[in-house]
Amino acid sequence: MKLNTMDKLNQAAEQNLMDIENAKASGRKVIGFYCLYTPMELAVAADAIPVPLCGTRNEPIAAAEEVLPRNFCPLIKSSFGFAATDTCPYFRYSDLVIGDTTCDGKKKMFELLSEYRPMHILQLPQKQDTKKALAFWRDEIETFKAVLEKTTGNEINNEKLAAAIRLMNKERMTKKALMDLAKTRPSPISGMDLLTIMFRTGFFADKPKGIALIIEIISEIIERISREESPFSIRTPRILLTGVPVGLGSDKMVRVLEESGANVVCFENCSGYKQAYTVDEEKEPLQALAEQYLSIPCSVMSPNQGRFELLSDMIREFSIDGVVDLTWQGCHTYNVEAYSMGKFVKDKHGLPYLHLETDYSESDTGQLKIRVEAFLEIIR
């Protein structure tokens, strides 16, 4: 059951590259970022275009392995491979690339990446519950602001920053409204369609245009709900996918789950519900950004209680039948946290839990499908 608006989304995604080229020709800067911890509002306030750069495809990994260890996280290898092979237009367009000191692998990869583009590294504290950590992070954001002002030649004042916060809040809440439609049982949208929409709209240079397109997609899905149309039945197992981020090209687990008869109704990761938040519009802008971005519940944080709280909310609100926890090979923080996550899901919520560790290649797809089918039998 293909959405009519998907064709429009594909056309807009193709047009987006030309929009960025035209914007650069007019003097606007492009700021590339690798992590959800980067406060994109600052780039928007500087009249720059923020674009995500995390690698989600397998093709550049071979080139990356000429430099990076083969047993490294595929997301890191893909990201570096795109830079090394000059095959990502968004990296090519970037006038400044922002890295965050999240995991050790990314930190060291950023050192090598600085040979390809000007870099600025945000030193991310890995505790969220102390005034000292927040003060440090606020200082990092102030430094980032100064770097952006120098890069773009544009001043970032409180008025511009407040407007950027309102715009980005609107984008995030529009995406949340889209994701929340899958709370309907059965869901009116597949996990692959949801992932595709979230992924492609994340690159849009024209934020209002992207928001308007998502609203149009929402309207079509609401009409589908009113007609009680769905690609699934009421008995289709409803899966929450947690763990590492996924995107087009690194979506094999979403495909395997849905081809095996499940529906991935929500994503508890930084490509999904982790970005369903609003920055406080009443507080002083830099302080509001510091507080909100530091609270993002990634496994690099210790402790990471926020992830468990978010997961509980999603399990209840999306009527989840089972939780699948995805870890990329070499991602030690998510791999270690999987033990606590499995215990939490089974003991607190009484739900089936499946932890899967894989990479971007298709070589283990058959084995993964066998494990998924056995997991779905437990649910049924």
TrEMBL record:
> Which InterPro entries is this protein grouped with?
FldB/FldC_alpha/beta (IPR010327), YjiM-like (IPR047678)
In terms of Pfam families, this protein maps to:
HGD-D
The UniProt similarity line reads: Belongs to the FldB/FldC dehydratase alpha/beta subunit family.
Q: What name goes with this protein?
A: 2-hydroxyglutaryl-CoA dehydratase, D-component
List the source organism: uncultured Desulfobacterium sp
